[in-house]
Design brief:
By secondary structure, the protein is mainly alpha-helical. It has a domain of 116 residues: V-type ATP synthase subunit C fold (Up-down Bundle). Helix content is 71%, strand content 0%. It contains 22 helices and no strands. α21 runs antiparallel to α22.
Length: 387
C-alpha cells in the first residue's frame, strides 16, 4: 500500500494571550474555510466508543458486517468475499485512514499539507518496526506479514522481500540502507548488539520521524506554530517518557540513553530528561517529571503523569504504563476538540488525526482478537479508550 499523493495543548491560553492574535485568528479562519468542513464531517463519522466496545467478543463475520455500515464501507466493499479475512480487513482500515488524511491534506493550505505529509511517515515507520519485531522472533514470511501493515515506500512487496531476504536484525538494517532509515538504524545497531533489546532501534526510528515532523511544524506561522508545537510536543514527550522508563528498567546508563531523547518542548528540556534519568528508580523518575510539569503549569502533562503514577504504584508494570500514555494522548485530543472549537486552527485538525488513528488501532485489536480467539477481557485491555 502506498501513501496518497499528497503528502503540548496550550496550557496557559487566556484572554491576554489571545488579544494580540485577534487579527491572525480572522486570517486563520479564512485559511481553514475549505478544510474544516471536511474535518468536521469526518469527525462525525468516527465510531462511538461504546460501539467499538460492543464489537469485542463478536465473530469475525459480525465485525466485518458492522464495519461495512461505517465510514469503512468503501474500503471493505472493495474486498472480494474470497479474500475477506483479518489481514484484508486490517489493510482496509489503514487504507481508509490514509484516504481520510489525504482528503484533508488536499483541502489544506500548503504548509498544513506539508506537516500532514510528515505525520504520515509514522505509519511507514510502524511497518519497519513491525518487520524488526517479527524478525527478532524468527517468524517466516507468511506468518510475519500477518503482523506487518505495509505503508508508504514499504509496500507489501518490499516488506515481504525484506523479511524473506534477511536472517537477522543486522540484515534488515542492510536491506533498508537505501532509505533514510538505514543510517539511523546503523547507529542504533550497536546498542542492540550490546543489550539484545529492540527498543533502541525502535526509538531511533521514532526519534528520526518525529524530528522531521517538528521541522515541518516550525515552518508554520503565528498561532498555528504555537499550537502545533505544544500538541506535537506532548506526543513526543510521551515518547521521551517511554524511553526514560524502559531504559531505567533495563539499567541503561544515562550517557547511552541521552542520545535517544528528543527534547522539543518547554516542559521536558534536555536538563529535565537527564535529571529524570539519574533518579534511582521508575517511581522517582515519574516524580521528577511531574515536578517539571507543575513548575511549567502544564495541566495536560500533570494529568498524564498523575495517572501514570497511580498505575505504576498499583501494578508495577511498564507495559500497562504504555497504555496509560496512549490513553493520555487520546484524552488530550478529546480536550483539544473542545478547546479549539471557537476558532479555526491546526489544533482541531491534529486532534482529529489522533482520534482517527486510535479508532483504527482499536478496531485492529478487535479484529485480531476475534481471529486468534483471544479472550474478550484481554482484548478490552488492549483498547485505547477515554476511560
Amino acid at each position: 500500500m502506498f501513501f496518497p499523493k499528497s503528502y503540548v495543548s496550550l496550557e496557559r491560553t487566556n484572554d491576554s494571550f489571545l488579544e494580540p492574535c485577534q487579527g491572525f485568528l480572522k486570517m486563520s479562519a479564512w485559511k481553514y474555510k475549505k478544510v474544516m468542513p471536511r474535518v468536521l464531517v469526518s469527525k462525525l463519522r468516527l465510531i462511538l466508543a461504546k460501539d467499538i466496545v460492543n464489537l469485542v467478543g463478536s465473530s469475525p463475520d459480525r465485525i466485518y458486517s458492522q464495519l461495512a455500515k461505517t465510514s469503512y464501507q468503501k474500503e471493505i466493499s472493495e474486498i472480494s468475499p474470497q479474500q475477506l479475512n483479518s489481514i484484508s480487513m486490517e489493510e482496509a482500515l489503514l487504507k481508509n485512514f490514509l484516504r481520510t488524511i489525504d482528503e484533508i491534506a488536499r483541502s489544506s493550505p500548503k504548509d498544513i499539507r506539508a506537516l500532514l505529509t510528515r505525520i504520515l511517515m509514522k505509519f511507514e515507520a510502524s511497518a519497519l518496526k513491525a518487520i524488526l519485531r517479527t524478525k527478532s522472533v524468527g517468524l517466516e514470511v507468511d506468518q510475519a506479514m500477518r503482523y506487518i501493515l505495509p505503508a508508504g515506500r514499504l509496500d507489501a512487496t518490499r516488506c515481504a522481500d525484506i523479511t524473506r531476504n534477511s536472517k537477522s536484525i543486522g540484515d534488515v538494517v542492510k536491506l533498508v540502507s537505501d532509505r533514510e532509515y538505514g543510517p539511523v538504524l546503523k547507529d542504533a545497531l550497536q546498542e542492540y548488539d550490546k543489550t539484545g533489546a529492540l527498543f533502541p532501534l525502535e526509538t531511533a526510528i521514532d526519534r528520526y520521524v518525529y524530528s522531521r515532523i517538528m521541522r515541518a511544524a516550525k515552518k508554520l506561522r503565528g498561532l498555528d506554530e504555537k499550537i502545533a508545537a505544544t500538541v506535537l510536543g506532548l506526543e513526543i514527550d510521551s515518547m521521551n517518557i517511554r524511553v526514560l522508563l524502559r531504559f531505567k528498567e533495563a539499567g541503561v546508563s544515562q550517557d547511552r540513553a541521552t542520545k535517544y531523547f528528543l527534547p522539543v518542548s518547554d516542559v521536558f528540556g534536555q536538563e529535565v530528561l537527564n535529571d529524570a534519568m539519574q533518579q534511582r528508580d521508575v517511581k522517582s523518575t515519574i516524580e521528577r517529571l511531574l515536578e517539571a510539569a507543575k513548575f511549567n503549569l502544564a495541566r495536560d502533562y500533570q494529568q498524564l503523569l498523575k495517572e501514570l503514577m497511580r498505575e505504576y504504584e498499583a501494578h508495577k508494570s511498564l507495559s500497562r504504563l504504555e497504555v496509560v500514555l496512549d490513553r493520555g494522548l487520546l484524552k488530550t485530543s478529546l480536550r483539544m476538540l473542545k478547546r479549539y472549537t471557537s476558532f479555526f486552527n491546526i489544533g482541531f485538525l491534529l486532534a482529529f488525526v489522533n482520534l482517527k488513528w486510535f479508532e483504527m488501532r482499536n478496531l485492529r485489536a478487535i479484529i485480531r482478537g476475534a481471529d486468534e480467539r483471544i479472550p474478550s477481557d484481554k482484548t478490552r485491555e488492549l483498547l485505547i479508550l477515554p476511560s
